[in-house]
Amino acid sequence: MMRANATRRPPPPISAPIRQTLIALGLGLLGTAGAAAQQMGDARAGRAVAATFCIQCHAIDGASRDPARVPPDFGAVADMASQTALSLRVFLQTPHGDMPRYQLTPTETDDVIAYVLSLRAR
Ligand code: HEC
């Protein structure tokens, strides 16, 4: 006799809109990972960038981290609780103080950010 088996249907195929959403999510995750990777500059190279472009105004070596000093010591910059690679990047995209409008390359920007963040006191 034919039984309830007839009502068992194959699972519905994933509908096109859902499939597109899943693909977009996957690409989004890849994009995020790529951006995160790009933020990881080379702190050693960043120290050289700082010694070239920043040292005439900032104490760059992290030995000094006086939060009251202007321009701020890089150690103090790193210690700011809200400081992130993103906030530094946004900051560095705008000329500041009397800082000449340096044209740091994207790599130099990544590196100097990595360097400043490496000064953070634990
Ligand atoms: C001509 C002097 C001068 C040079 C060169 C200079 N800065 Fe500054 N910087 C300042 C002054 C002044 C301030 C504080 C006033 C302000 O924030 O605009 C400051 C503030 C900062 C801050 C603090 C941001 C915050 O969160 O408050 C950061 C980060 C910074 N500089 C990074 C750099 C880096 C990186 C370089 C080198 C690529 C650099 N500066 C070169 C003068 C300079």
Beta-strand share of residues: under 5%
Number of strands: 0
Q: What low-confidence regions span 5 or more consecutive residues with pLDDT below 50?
A: 29-38
What is the radius of gyration computed over CA atoms, rounded to a whole number of angstroms?
Answer: 25 Å
Classify the fold: give the CATH topology of the domain at 41-118.
Cytochrome Bc1 Complex, Chain D, domain 2
- Main β-sheet description: none
What CATH architecture of the domain at 41-118 do you see? Orthogonal Bundle
Coarse morphology: elongated
Query: How many separate helices?
Result: 5
Give the N-terminus to C-terminus distance in angstroms.
75 Å
Helix-strand topology string: HHHHH
**What is the helical fraction, as a range of percent?**
40-55%
Structural class: mainly alpha
CATH class of the domain at 41-118 equals Mainly Alpha
Overall pLDDT: 80
Task: Name the ligand types.
Answer: heme C
